[in-house]
Amino acid sequence: MYFLDKSEESEESVYDKHLTYKVKKGDTLQSVADELGVDAYELRRYHNIYCPLSDLIEADFKSYLKFVILSPKKTFEAEKEEKKKVQKVSLGSNYLLPFVADRINRDYKAQYTTVVGDQVDTIEMEVSVKWLATDKNNYHLFEINKGVIYVNNTIPDTVMDELAAKTAEVLYPLKIVVDEFGKWIDIYNYEEIDSRWKNVKEAILDYFEGEVAEKYIEQTEYAFDSAETLLESLVSDYFLRAFFNGIHVSYTANLAFKNEVFFPLEKDEESKFEVEQILDPIIDESNLVKVEQKGDYVDCSGGVSFGFEPWKGKYKASYFLDEHTYCIEKIDLECSIEYDEEIKVMIQIESLEK
């Protein structure tokens, strides 16, 4: 007659209570950990907590070991499912990050914080971006509109601020031309803006009196003198420069390359930065594609030749794009120059749909 050994009964019942892996010939601790996609230390630790003393895993499996107890959080099938969820960014030929212009029709919240020495100011507004058309040369036409502007959480109420607001109304809707890489290159509706300005100018002069208003009108007249002067006056628009920055380009095989970025940080000048532009190959947990630009300021003033220390500065921008349309969902941009005093701009742009 066959009698079941009590120790065997106890051992089998322990393994019945857990998820287990059946040890095959040739299996080692490391090979099983690799097969299951778990850390070998964690595999051994969890098994040793619940197994009989005789089945403790030391440096490796004992020759008679039949089962390995698995953590329910990391079964082999569950781990495979997790790996399936890791999605890579889909690129075009030559590692091109697509610019799907006709899918862009969104409202954004924009916030700019400027720091000059001890002076800190914050500007907030809503901006809408709408694709209108694409021509045979793959140039795109967009319409830009801006809402109420808040300065340091309040609506501006000084004469200069009111003048600026009235003048800004003339610009919108603003129609701009964007190239195939998503970079803003021109203004499309100059004649329309100029016509609006001629009508609004008289109303402004009737409402605002005095030397301040006249001088402001004189300066504005120069900006609206031609399409070229208007474009020159708008190059310092933080939203247009950050949003239409031309990030939809071909990347190298390792999805990173050196690049030059120009940004309107200094007064009447373009600040130059040498950056590394990196495309993250993996879609993040929010289903967004990330493009990052990071680098240093290039001092082009020639100060070193005159015995002055060169200016230093940093540039960092992170773009988060929709995984399907490649539309911008969010931008975090910060650039700075430091010499006698710090000049810094921090820009945050985020889709209101999110």
UniProtKB/TrEMBL annotation:
Pfam families: LysM
Domain annotation LysM: ranges: 19-65
InterPro entries: LysM, LysM_dom_sf
UniProt-listed CDD domains: LysM
Domain of life according to the entry: Bacteria
SUPFAM superfamilies: LysM domain (SSF54106)
UniProt-recorded name of the protein: LysM domain-containing protein
